[in-house]
Amino acid sequence: MHCPFCQNPDTKVVDTRISEDGHSIRRRRECPKCSKRFTTLETTMLLVVKRSGNVEPFDRNKVISGVRKACQGRPIREDDLKTLGQQVEEDLRARGLAQVKSADIGKAILKPLRDLDVVAYMRFASVYQNFESLEDFQRAIDALQSETER
Q1: What pTM was estimated for this model as a whole?
Q2: Is 135 exposed, middle or buried (0-12, 13-18, 19+ CB in 10 A)?
Q3: Taking the alpha carbons of 105, 107, 108, 114 in that order, is the dihedral positive or negative?
Q4: Bridge-based pairing state of the strands 55-57 and 37-43
């Protein structure tokens, strides 16, 4: 790590702290040459591989935005959507992979969304799983009902 003040290539770590979300590390550093201190924030990057093959950084807000569309007109609070977005991100990061497929993100959304609101779940699943007929909806409804009965 180069010192931002004198560009010295050698710096000393004075203090290290893990952030509350556990996904970043804050380090307090000191330059032995100029004696100035500065802070660095180290984070892990989660990348998404799209169907097209493009790769982009994971964005929790995109998850929330997609789920928000499925929840339109439903009695769901914004805080619930944010919590769902955080759950999805934590699930993906817990896998320990640097890259995830966009399809895996959709799968990770399904369970917490089903727990939140079954109507929104059906809306999201119908788009995500490309429902093409009433039979597709019926199979999904039957699966939900059998899970509820257990």
Answers
A1: 0.72
A2: exposed
A3: positive
A4: unpaired
